[in-house]
Amino acid sequence: MKNYTLKIGEIFTEQKEKELKEYLEAKDEEIAQLRLQLAGCAVAALGGKRANVNDYGWSPSYQDVLNLRLKYENLIGTKPDPEA
User: Fold this and answer.
1) In this structure, is residue 83 part of a structural domain?
2) Contact predicate 46/67, CB 8 Å
3) Which 8-state DSSP code applies to residue 26?
4) Which listed residue, 13, 42, 54, 70, has the most CB atoms within 10 A of its CB?
């Protein structure tokens, strides 16, 4: 993804408008995925439903939180719910 720039004094053409719209739409999609991944980290921390590597909400941070949760459960002697 290229960074979008518009220099001071540059004429805002229809092409620039299209480029800006595409850039902002891509950023909106990225923000939505990041929000979902952050929510996934909270779910993992609370011991909720597990996500898989290819799931939309999975991230390396989610996996780190999940691994820590599993270590915690092992330490206190609880077993994760297989349906979660």
Assistant:
1) no
2) no
3) H
4) 70
